[in-house]
């Protein structure tokens, strides 16, 4: 299971945003074995005054095209899977919609399986 939130500055086209979501879903399917149809993703767009970031933090030069990706997923993946996921996301986003790897910021939040309710008020992973 994964829930993905994407934050970026306002002004990008619908095609651009859909390409981001498609690339993220592809990477998660390939690397994290996310099941088919498990594409729960949202995009949050921000005005410039509501989107602040370290332009050169850790000597990485970021631009206003920065995309902040927060993935909440089950705590079941290895360190190697995590490294591979980060790399694959950056690679796919560079291909489509053309985001520089320096502008891809990823945060992974891992939770226990019992912390999900996917509808109907049930804890599907423990019931």
UniProtKB/TrEMBL annotation:
A Pfam family of this chain: Tautomerase_2
Domain of life the protein comes from: Bacteria
PANTHER family assigned: TAUTOMERASE YOLI-RELATED (PTHR38460:SF1)
Protein name: Phenylpyruvate tautomerase PptA (4-oxalocrotonate tautomerase family)
Lineage: Bacteria, Bacillati, Bacillota, Bacilli, Bacillales
């Amino acid at each position: 299971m994964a829930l993905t939130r994407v934050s970026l500055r306002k002004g990008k086209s619908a095609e651009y945003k859909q390409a981001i979501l498609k690339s993220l879903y592809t990477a998660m399917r390939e690397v994290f074995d996310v099941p088919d149809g498990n594409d729960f993703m949202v995009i949050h767009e921000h005005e410039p005054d509501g989107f602040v970031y370290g332009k050169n933090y850790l000597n990485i030069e970021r631009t206003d095209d920065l995309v902040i990706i927060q993935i909440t997923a089950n705590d079941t993946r290895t360190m190697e899977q995590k490294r591979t996921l980060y790399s694959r996301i950056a690679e796919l986003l560079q291909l489509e919609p053309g985001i520089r790897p320096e502008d891809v910021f990823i945060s992974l939040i891992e939770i226990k399986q019992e912390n999900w309710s996917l509808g109907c008020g049930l804890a599907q992973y423990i019931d």
